[in-house]
From TrEMBL:
Name the UniProt record assigns to this protein: BD-FAE-like domain-containing protein
Domain BD-FAE-like: from-to ranges: 1-129
Annotated source species: Hymenobacter cavernae
Transmembrane regions listed in the UniProt entry: none
Lineage, broadest ranks: Bacteria, Pseudomonadati, Bacteroidota, Cytophagia, Cytophagales
InterPro entries: AB_hydrolase_fold (IPR029058), BD-FAE-like_dom (IPR049492)
Region forming the signal peptide: none
Length: 352
């Protein structure tokens, strides 16, 4: 996999989005343009992102007349690889913490074939649900073999132009999902049908049907329809493709943000509360710096402090280490900011 991280952040627990590329299970790589674009954009928001490679079929395997079995097996093997990636990060979160992942906020996503993989990672969660012709046990079951002992469960699913092989895999209690799909998709049906371009004639249930099923069983979901658009319209660098990618990014961002349980996109660690402080912040408005002064009637304890801008985005983190502390303005723009931290009442700061 290629792993993307926010530059210069100090978050101790970060959300994770793992993406799988398109390519009909016979081609494509982790460095395909839609993957690099999505992963880069979300890393800029504070996510760790990863674009994975997964095992591919040979073209001969896939295009044998009427051969739906290899197609289905290829999707299962790729799903094992996605689950192995989830477990890799969850193991790191429990041991080395190299990537500072919050293991409760891991999301699976993908485009086209990669969306099949993400959907199966989220919803094909019982061996009894796998059709017998898969011979799943011989392939290693649902999980495969890497990093066993750690959960491969995800918090939600990002489905870009994908489909499910069985509607019933999505059931009450399943994790939330967001889908984006073109109504004129000629490869993966928007509703139900068989894939195009000579792919094996397996019955598939696209994003339109997935939404109906999710609504019926009470699974939170969002469907954004690209009206009149063909398959993966966000793939490319043309002006229309970039516009479709902009929309894709915004819809997925707005779906994920509430699942993080806070207005911004960065998850921070929960620490034990310290005694409340009636902090004095002066001067305000300020030009170059503000001073934080702790009251003298409470024993001072160092604590982590955050500064948020008017959109609730965290713009600075620092450790308040002395009862009187100078916070330089640095490169912050003029405007209103909010100072918050453990055990203190949020304080307004204005820089002119």
């Amino acid at each position: 996999m290629d792993i993307y991280e926010p530059a210069g952040d100090t978050a101790v627990r970060r959300p994770l989005l793992i993406m799988a590329h398109e390519g009909a299970f016979v081609q494509g790589t982790k460095s395909d343009q839609p993957m690099t674009e999505i992963c880069t954009r979300f890393a800029r928001l504070g996510y760790v992102t990863a674009s994975i490679d997964y095992r591919l079929l040979s073209l001969i395997q896939l295009l044998l007349p009427g051969d739906t079995i290899n197609f289905a097996k290829g999707a299962l093997l790729a799903t094992q690889d996605m689950r192995a990636a989830v477990r890799f990060f969850r193991k790191d979160a429990a041991t080395n913490r190299q990537y500072r992942i919050h293991s409760g906020y891991i999301f699976a996503g993908g485009s086209s074939a990669g969306a099949f993989v993400a959907l199966q990672t989220g919803y094909l969660d019982k061996l009894s649900e796998v059709p017998s012709f898969y011979d799943a046990a011989a392939l290693g079951g649902l999980e495969g073999s890497n990093n066993l002992g750690y959960s491969s469960a995800v918090r939600g699913v990002v489905n870009l132009c994908g489909a499910l092989g069985r509607r019933e895999w999505l059931e009450a209690g399943s994790v939330p999902l967001v889908s984006l799909h073109g109504t004129n998709d000629n490869r993966v049906p928007y509703n139900s049908g068989k894939p195009g371009f000579g792919l094996p004639p397996q019955q598939l249930y696209g994003s339109g049907i997935i939404k109906v099923r999710a609504d019926a069983v009470g699974v939170p979901n969002t469907l954004y329809t690209f009206k009149g658009a063909n398959h993966v319209p966000y793939n490319g660098v043309s002006e229309p493709s970039v516009a479709y990618m902009d929309t894709t990014f915004r819809v997925v961002r707005d779906f994920l943000r509430p699942l993080l349980r806070q207005p911004g996109t960065i998850i921070t660690a929960t620490k034990a509360a310290k005694p409340s402080l009636a902090v004095q912040v002066y001067p305000t408005p300020a030009i170059d710096a503000v001073r934080l002064l702790a009251p003298g009637n409470v024993a001072f304890q160092p604590r982590e402090i955050e500064l948020l801008d008017a959109t609730s985005r965290i713009v600075r983190r620092f450790r308040w280490s002395q009862p009187e502390f100078v916070l330089p303005r640095g490169s912050l723009k003029a405007g209103l900011y909010v100072l918050r931290g453990e055990g203190i009442v949020p304080q307004r700061i204005v820089f002119e």
